[in-house]
Amino acid sequence: MPTIKTNGINLYYEESGQGEPLLLIMGITAPGAVWEKHLEHWQQSFRCIIVDNRGVGLSDKPAGPYTSAQMADDCAGLLAHLGLEKVRVAGVSMGSIIAQELAFRHPHLVKSMVLMCPWARCDNTAKDIFKHMVDIKARLRPEEFSRYIQLLIFSKASFDDEETYKGMLEDRKNAKNDTNPQPLIGLEGQAAACMNHDLLEHLHRIKQPVLVIGGEEDKFTPLWMTKEVAGAIPNATLHTYPGSGHAFHWENIEDFNPRIKQWFITH
């Protein structure tokens, strides 16, 4: 399995497709494999690199707290190992704060970025949501925790759509049977990185082209967070999906996948 030593941990990654490199950074609780349905589309045009962030999947899960800067340095080590610079980057949720730090701390590594449901800082509400996530992870069965995450990330329209809801039920079942679930220590570390990320005063130093995307009905990281990031980065373009939640990239996948591919082709 492709695992490298970087920044003091073993980091797992996979590659697929051909073309210029595209690094995909996943959000809190999720391994890189969750990019699967997007990867199927993008790997037709790019050399896609997915990574299991520290604290989840097949990467190491040391005691935290972690920081977004530390996790960006994990990714920088991966790119150095692969001999890559000027890479396109897409980050979703926690992955978006890692991507911000990657562009800020290692600007030579990043050509352009898509930041999905990002934030530049957390208010008290956001911090309490991340704390609550850790609290209930310690108390709920895996399938119950999966349902809680779904309530955070999906819009009402997704719950009302029978086919989508059927998929949610299947995901809960898969969580129950997962042989490598994220341990509490990993979630604690990642949640700390999310809560303590504060790059707002430095985002003006990110000069690369950036596409910032959010769901207008996002309960987890509300639209003001997305707009704040877009407003602080000089070369950012904002796109939002009406009626969509934190998982807008699933709820609008038929539009989202080709939109992102085309944006990266031109940036």
TrEMBL record:
Q: Does the keyword DNA repair apply?
A: no
InterPro entries xref list: AB_hydrolase, AB_hydrolase_1, AB_hydrolase_fold
List each copy of the AB hydrolase-1 domain by range. 21-252
Cited PANTHER family: AB HYDROLASE-1 DOMAIN-CONTAINING PROTEIN, HYDROLASE, ALPHA/BETA FOLD FAMILY PROTEIN
GO-annotated molecular function:
hydrolase activity
Annotated protein name in UniProt: Alpha/beta hydrolase fold protein
Superkingdom field: Bacteria
- Could you tell me the keywords of this UniProt record? Hydrolase
Extract the Pfam families matched here.
Abhydrolase_1
